[in-house]
Amino acid sequence: MYQSVLEVPPMVKEVLDHETFEKARLYQLDKSNFGFWSGLYSQFEMTVILLLGGIPFLWRVSGDILQKYDFGEEYEITQSLVFMLLATVFSTITGLPWSLYGTFVIEEKHGFNKQTLGFYIKDLIKKFLVTQLIALPITAALIYIIQVGGDYFFIYAWLFVFVMSLLLITIYADYIAPLFDRFTPLPDGELRTQIEELAASIDFPLKKLFVVEGSKRSSHSNAYFYGFFKNKRIVLYDTLLEDYAPMNKNDKPADQGQEADNTDAAENTEDKPDEPKDEDQKDKEEKKKIGCNDGEVLAVLSHELGHWKLSHNLKNLVIGQVNTFLCFLVFALLMKRHELFTAFGFSTQPTLIGLVIIFQFIFSPYNELLSFCMTALSRRFEFQADTFAKSLHRAAELRTALIKLNKDNLGFPITDWLFSAWHYSHPPLLERLKALDKTD
User: Fold this and answer.
1) What is the DSSP string of 140-158?
2) What are phi and psi of 208, to 5 degrees?
3) What is the pLDDT of residues 351-372, one digit of tens each?
4) What are the backbone angles phi and psi of residue 206, rounded to the nearest 5°?
5) Model pTM score
6) How many angstroms separate the CA atoms of 16 and 413, rounded?
7) Which of 76, 304, 397, 431 is catalytic?
8) Does residue 390 carry a pLDDT above 90?
9) What's the CA gap between 241 and 291, in Å, rounded?
10) Is 107 a catalytic residue?
11) Nearest to 27 by CA among 127, 102, 126, 130
12) pLDDT, position 154
């Protein structure tokens, strides 16, 4: 698709100029090629690991490390944590070249990356440490529950995972996300007032309103809300806001630029009458700007709040927990099957290895099917949220916002319907615009 469609099709000429269309095509072509080769490598790596017995090898290495400190086989949970740590280090190292290439070659080439190498490495180390501090204790507790839970351990395991999920959702935005990004309250002004009025009009219990400095990583934009019950927060990326995006600001110092402009203007008015600004210059300045104006931001938030009003997040949570419960139930039925462990090169039956074998490999076909169903459901939810924004009389602003965001993020408007249905959790731009244009 990215190689065959070289000219702007008539159906998208009204939303994309040729220059942006070509940029989007090349960006998506690079991403597609990169995704193909990185996916192929991941498949090759996993195949080699399975054929050469990499998983049992790493388990033995973990045991050897513990034996040096006089920990025997009875310390299965400790060995499981060492195994997890080593596996994470291995995957981080093997994935690093791909991550670096994606960030500093592809994203850099197309103008999205804003990170320095030093910032990237510091961020990578920080993410690794935070992930281990969270994952290792939770994994240890889960293994213990499975080992001592008896015949109905799957119920206790599911309850534990459910509680941990709620806890992480609760603390993530307040305690974890600020470790990586700077969150500041949206200043008082017309936009803040309008957002608060919008939230009040649909009984959304808005408590805090933040702007996150996403521009230090990328010029991609986003907005989301989080929180339980009466404690909701809205987060806007600075790249979403036309008046806040650093890319829209002049690099020249404000006082110096203002003084020079005023002096030139005074001299010019004495010599000649006002002249209209060159139209090409206007177009260039307009194209340089990214983000949405206040009305479009309100339309985007109307869409996001539509997800809350229509209980989409709650429905996803319920589906996820039902799936988790069923998976633990099946795990309980299979975990005692010795042949599963033998097939992967194990003579013993460690609990963590059973989780890896069953959840990652045995459930693989089921996970693909579930992923497709969740993608289809997500697309349906997106259309419903657009319809909700339309019911708030925001259709026109949402339409222009979607077009702007598609341009800012170099989204390619032409998609293969089958590929889109399988991979895209959000409907393509043209489908959303068509739905918005429909009369009630």
Assistant:
1) HHHHHHHHHSGGGHHHHHH
2) -140, 155
3) 999 999 999 999 999 999 999 9
4) -75, 125
5) 0.82
6) 9
7) 304
8) yes
9) 5
10) no
11) 102
12) 95
